[in-house]
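Morning run. Coffee first, then this:
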Amino acid sequence: MELLWFYVAVVLAISDEIHSFLFWNVFVDFYILFAGIIKETVASNIKLWLVHEILESIFHFIVLSLVFFSVEIGFLGALIHMVIDLYHELSGYKMTHLYHRALHFTIESFFFMLMFSGR
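And here it is:
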């Protein structure tokens, strides 16, 4: 198993920070316009939010796949990240940024420990 689970969780955390920085600081004007276009297309806030989560997952898939040269790791990382985001948003928990990051890191670490334990 070595420490691959740890590296994947760290890269996924870094990928999430990069995603947040890029889309809320660098491309914020584009992001707001794009969200408006998607909102008009899907006609519901819940669908808009799901499209956002799916697009974020695609971003994480690309980053993880490139860093680890593995489509499997990219897919699993994007999937678990999206599931965690969906769960904690639907559950209604209000979290600080640090709590949010710790929640993701902990669950993603356990998930990848389980995935890589048989290898």
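Residues 41 and 48 are 9 Å apart (CA to CA). Good start to the day.
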